[in-house]
Amino acid sequence: MPTISRRKFLALIAGGALALIAYLAVPELAKLPKRGEREVREEGEEGEAGFERLGEGYLDGFEHIVIAEGLMVPWAIVALEDGSLIVTERPGRISLISGGRRETIAKLPVAAVGEAGLLGADVHPDFPGERKLYVYATFEAGGGLVNRILLLRLSRSLTSVESTEVILDGIPGARLHDGGRLRIGPDEALYATTGDALKPELAQDLGSLAGKILRVGLDGEIPDDNPFDGSPVYSYGHRNPQGIDWHPPTGRMYSSEHGPVGRDELNEIVAGGNYGWPITSGLEGEWRPGLMKPVIDFGDVSIAPAGASFVRKGLGRLKGDMLIACLRGSMLVRVAFNENGDVLGYEYMMRGRYGRLRDVVPHPDGGVLVATSNRDGRGTPRPGDDKIIWIRG
Ligand SMILES: [Ca+2]
Predict the structure, then answer these.
(1) 136 C-alpha vs ligand 1 centroid, how far in Å?
(2) What CATH number is associated with residue 106?
(3) What are phi and psi of 220, to 5 degrees?
């Protein structure tokens, strides 16, 4: 039997102790969220949340400036580089708001019924060099409702329209579930969210433009690298998404979506992805291979998430996080992100302070602009509603 030196014996003991420590440590380490793993918190849940909770009153510490008031359901805010805003209102008016003054650019003959009407907007990436404004709106057609994406060429003063062109037609419309968010992505393609137009089965039908996120070129052409040949469909299986943005450093795309009763979602959008509706809703349903689970299922209580944007500048610890404007929830949801574009968790902010919120966009000078929606028939209008408020600092 080989003998063992005292030194070797001690080394073995020490090695064993290290192995034991490592063994004991493993379950603890395994509990930590790995990179890329998402930790989602329920409302009111405290403790090891995986991200720093800032608290509901966090935004109280910043300056709140009313930029515009007396608006009627402002649906989309486009913040221009010089700080002026182009704003759509659901009944059909498009305005330029600059230096405290509002000028009407156009009034469109939209079908403003239920949740339909003049909805999303964005401008050409080279605006105002290219004076092209894109809007998403509902119209009456053939005894029903249809949603269209229009390209409006503006005059040099930006206060009137020189020509109007329909660049995407035939998006099914309805009194409810019209989607409507329009945004130009970092790839300079135009994205639009569409609702299921009250026909849930259309969301799974790749031949229909309902219940989708669409992607077209800046003149409405279908990009060669879209996931389905010859189709503007980028992702499908959506119920009624109304917010999209791209995590600034990574370009990962996220979208907020209204669920049926609760089950509101935040999804990470990938080309060709099927987001489940109506087979699944939130994290519930009959999961089968190929269906995308939401990053966040906001639970049983409806918060009605609408516009969503990443904070680019200002607002302290919120930089790099996403804010989602909530209608029913009358608040902003903060979704905390790490630098890789992974969701760390979420919390509710500014609950009830301004009532229903429809859109939130970054202001070029920092902070965010939020639009109230208290005159949409589901809220309680307050003096000066609807408003656009700049939260900065
Ligand atoms: Ca879903």
Answers:
(1) 23
(2) 2.120.10.30
(3) 90, 0
Alpha-carbon distance of 383 to 47, in angstroms, equals 39
> 85 to each of 58, 118, 194, 224, 390, how far by Cα in Å?
26, 16, 24, 33, 11
What are 269's two structure tokens?
């959008």
User: Closest Cα partner for 366 from 75, 79, 87?
Assistant: 79
How far, in Å, from the CA of 72 to the mean position of ligand 1?
A: 30
- Domain of residue 103, residue span: 73-320
User: Which tokens hold the place of 118?
Assistant: 């003049």
Q: Which two tokens stand for residue 363?
A: 């202001």
* pLDDT, tens only, 255-314: 999 999 999 999 999 999 999 999 999 999 999 999 999 999 999 999 999 999 999 999
Tell me the CA–centroid distance for residue 390 and ligand 1, in Å: 32
Segment 110-158, tens digit of pLDDT: 999 999 999 999 999 999 999 999 999 999 999 999 999 999 999 999 9
Q: How many domains does the chain have?
A: 1
Residue 121 lies in a domain: yes
Distance between first and last Cα of the chain: 76
Element (H, E) at 31: helix 6-31
Distance 87 CA to ligand 1 centre (A): 29
DSSP-assigned states of every residue in 176-234: S-----EEE-TTS-EEEE---TT-GGGGG-TTS-SSEEEEE-TTSPPPTTSSSTT--EE
Beta bridge partners of 243: 256
In a domain, 62, yes or no: no
User: Three-state SS for 292?
Assistant: coil
Q: Encoding tokens for residue 123? A: 């401008």
pTM of the model: 0.88
| Active site (annotated) includes residue 177 | yes
- Give the chain's largest Cα–Cα span: 98
Of the residues 124, 177, 247, 258, which is catalytic? 177
Residue labelled with tokens 């990053």: 295
Is 310 contained in some domain?
A: yes
Is 150 within the bounds of a domain?
A: yes
Are 337 and 308 in contact, with CB atoms under 8 Å apart? no
How many A from CA of 321 to the centre of ligand 1?
A: 22
